[in-house]
Design goal:
Layout lengths: L18 H8 L28 E12 L2 E4 L5 E5 L2 E11 L8 E7 L10 H4 L15 E2 L1 H13 L3 E4 L2 H8 L8 E3 H4 L11 H9 L1 E2 L7 H21 L2 H14 L6 H6 L3 E2 L35 H5 L10
Parallel strand pairs: 1-7, 5-6, 7-8, 9-10
Antiparallel strand pairs: 1-4, 2-3, 4-5
Helix pairs in contact: 6-7
Length: about 325
């Protein structure tokens, strides 16, 4: 996992569009001895055939398999001799279009061969037992299988969408060409501000949703990135993208670019989506689960109370009016 090999795709390699189906079927065995309810639905041919330009939303989770080595010098300066090493623990990929947009078709937990020193649960949502073949209730697969699925999607020409994906791809050790990446951290960014915005902050302000409550969930995060991309398209088509970005940064400065805890206590936002059982059916774009709640959250309009609301005044034609 932490070797020097980079997983790349030879230009001459061709994989038929049905490759993802045959590969998924041939490796569909749940390796856990205690499998629970599946959190994903595989792609169904022929109407769900990934190909050139197909958008898929991706998020990954990691665990720590080696602690950093720190050396303290006589002058009190700390030097990192060896950095922390992470291993891939979960890969979630959701549909980026179609009738089931936002619904996962891959949700693999990875059987880590190295000893896990820290599950990083607050950041990964992974707990002890999730990666153990004897106790895991998830779709537990070898690392090679998790890589292969991404590799096939890459060969088919799919575009990977996510938030701040550079770190993900670096730790996963796979190279995704720039033409096949859509990063919402770069879309919702003003270069002059020299600051990128977190997924949770953008979800709170743009989508009116609270996500990552307690722990992270890779399906929730990939869905949220997809929703943000749809909002980006809406604002671009309406010609208000720059105004929207200016307002987002203005609002961020008022709260130090963090989701105000008071707003969460007030319950003014829709809680972030959780991983649904298969019986729930459609993705987030359906009528039963709209992309953006109609009700405005508390604090966005002047006069609703609280110093945060009073401190922010949207500009003319602002999307937050």
């Amino acid at each position: 996992m932490h070797g020097s090999k980079i997983w790349t795709v030879p230009c001459s390699t061709e994989i038929p569009s049905k490759g993802i189906y045959s590969f998924a079927r041939s490796h569909a065995n749940i390796h856990s001895t205690r499998p629970g309810e599946r959190s994903y639905r595989p792609l169904v041919p022929p109407h769900e055939t990934p190909g050139e330009g197909t958008i898929v939303a991706l998020d990954t989770e990691f665990v720590s398999v080696r602690q950093p080595e720190i050396q303290m010098h006589s002058d009190g300066v700390r030097e990192t001799i060896r950095p922390t090493v992470h291993a891939l623990a979960r890969v979630s990929v959701v549909r980026g279009s179609g009738e089931d947009e936002g619904y996962p078709f891959i949700d693999d937990y990875v059987a880590v061969r190295d000893k896990v020193l820290d599950y990083l649960t607050n950041f990964s949502g992974i707990v002890a037992g999730d990666l153990d073949i004897r106790t895991s209730q998830h779709n537990l697969v070898p690392l090679k299988i998790a890589y292969k699925k991404l590799w096939i999607l890459l060969n088919l020409g799919c575009k990977f969408l996510g938030h701040s994906m550079k770190t993900d791809f670096r730790v996963v050790n796979i190279h995704i060409p720039k033409a096949q990446r859509i990063d919402t951290a770069e879309l919702f960014w003003i270069k002059e501000q020299r600051r990128t915005l977190s997924l949770s902050f953008l979800a709170w302000l743009v989508l009116k949703e609270d996500i990552q409550i307690g722990t992270h969930d890779s399906i929730e995060d990939s869905r949220t990135a997809l929703k943000l991309y749809r909002k980006y398209q809406e604002f671009t088509d309406a010609g208000i993208l720059r105004q929207m970005l200016n307002d987002i940064y203005a609002r961020g400065k008022d709260c130090n670019f963090r989701v105000p805890s008071a707003m969460k206590r007030d319950g003014g936002h829709q809680k972030g989506t959780e991983t649904p059982p298969l019986s729930e059916g459609r993705g987030f774009g359906s009528a039963s689960n709209p992309v953006t709640p109609v009700r405005k959250p508390l604090g966005l309009a002047p006069g609703t109370g609280g110093s945060f609301a009073a401190a922010f005044t949207p500009g003319r034609n602002s999307p937050f009016n």
